[in-house]
Amino acid sequence: MSATVDVLPPGFGEPDAEDLRQADYPPVMPLAVATLILIVSGGVVVAAQYGRPPHLEVPTILLGLATLLLIVNAVLVLRIREFARPVFFRVLGWALLAYAAIAGILEYVFLYDHTPAKVLALFSGMLVLFALDVPLMLAYSVARWQPPDAT
Amino acid sequence: MTDTAIDPGVDTAARSVEPGAAPPPGAGGPGPPPVPNFNIVPVRALPVVAVVLIGLIVAISTNNLWALTFFHVAGGGLWTSLDLFLGLVLGPIMGSLSIPARIEFTTKFMPKMLLIMPTLVAMTLGAGFQLARHVGNLEASYPHHGWLVASMVIVAVMSVIALGLLEPANLAVLFELKKPQPNGARIQRLMKVFIYTAGITGLMQIATIVIMTFLASR
C-alpha cells in the first residue's frame, strides 16, 4: 500500500492565531474530563450495589467533588478574556438540549424502575451534572479554535 | 428540505465547490484546498434518531424482553463494528488519501457520525441496563455479579473516552472546516484523535462482548 504524498499548499496548516492563544486558556478540558470520571465512577458504585441496601457515602462524595469541579470549570470558562463566546453559547445551547434528552431518558428509566428515593436523588444529581458537563466540553472544544469575534 | 442546524455563521456557499465540479480559479495553486458545502448537523436524519429513541423508551416502559434484547444487541453490535471499522480500516485508508480527498470525505462522513454514535450509545446502554435489571443480572446476589461490574467499569472508561475525546474532536473538526480558511494541521490532529479513540473504544468493546457472551451462556 502506498501512501499519497501530501503537498501542503503554502499557509495550509501553519500555526494560526488560535494555536497561539491555546497557552493562555485554563485547563477546561482536563477538569471537565475529571468531572465526567467522578460522575461515571459514582454511577458504577451505585449500580454495582443494586438489589441490596446501598452504601451511598462514596458516591455522595464523588458527586460533591464533581459539582465543585464543574462550578470551578464554569467560572474558568466565563473568565477567559479572548474567547469566541457567541460560538460557545450557541453550541452549548444545542448540546444542552441534546444531552437533556439523553439524561431525561435515563431519569425516566430510574423513575419507571421505582428506584429508592435516596438512590434516585443521587442518580438525578449525577444526571444533571452529566447533562451540564458534556455540553460544556463540546462547546469549549469548538469555541477554543474559533477567532474571538466569530459568531 | 435542506439541512440547516448549527451554522457557525460563515457563508460557506461563497467559498465552497460541489464535489467533482471543476476547481475554482486558483485551485491547485497557493491557498487552502476547497471545502465542499456541508451542514454540521444532518437535520434530515433527526426523525430517524427520534424514531429509534421513541422505540427505546417503548421497549423500556413495556419491559418487552425481545425489544430490550434487540436494542441492546443491535446497538452494541453496530457500535462495536463501527468503532473497529473506523479505527482499523477507515483510519489507515484516510491516512493514505490526498488532503482534498480527506476533506471531502470528512465533510460527508463526520456530520453523520455526530448523530449515529450518540444514538447507538443511548440504545445500547439504556436497553442494556433495563435488560440486566429485568432478567435479574443486576442484582448483587447474581452469581456472576463481579463480571457484570467489570463490564460496567469498561463501559464507564469507554464513555469517558467517547464523550471527553471522540465527540469533542468530531464537532471541532466540523466547525474548523466551516472556517473561511480551515487549518489543515489542526483538522489532521483532531481526525487522528477521532480515529484512534474510535479504535480504542472498539477494542475495549471486544472485552465487553467477551463478558456479555460469557454471561449469556451461563
Mind explaining what this structure looks like?
The complex is a heterodimer of chains A (151) and B (218). By secondary structure, chain A is mostly helical. Chain A has one domain (26-143). Chain A has 5 helices and no strands. Chain A has helices at 17-21, 28-47, 57-78, 85-112, 117-143. In chain A, helix 2 (28-47) runs antiparallel to helix 3 (57-78). The radius of gyration of chain A is 20 Å and the shape is elongated. By secondary structure, chain B is mostly helical. Chain B has one domain (43-216). In chain B, 69% of the residues lie in helices and 0% in strands. At the A-B interface, helix 2, helix 4 and helix 5 of A face helix 1, helix 3, helix 4 and helix 5 of B.
**Straight-line distance between termini of chain B:** 50 Å
**Approximately what portion of the residues of chain A adopt beta-strand conformation?**
under 5%
Low-confidence stretches of chain A: 1-5
| Strand runs of chain B, count | 0
Mean of the pLDDT scores of chain B? 80
Main beta sheet of chain B? none
Rg of chain B, Å, rounded: 20 Å
Classification by helices and strands of chain B = mainly alpha
Which blocks of ≥5 consecutive residues of chain B have pLDDT under 50?
A: 1-29
This entry's quaternary arrangement is heterodimer
Task: Tell me the total number of β-strands of chain A.
Answer: 0
Shape of chain B: elongated
The helicity of chain B comes to: 55-70%
- Tell me the structural class of chain A: mainly alpha
Essential attributes:
heterodimer; A: 151 residues; mainly alpha; 68% helix; 0% strand; elongated; disordered N terminus; B: 218 residues; 5 helices
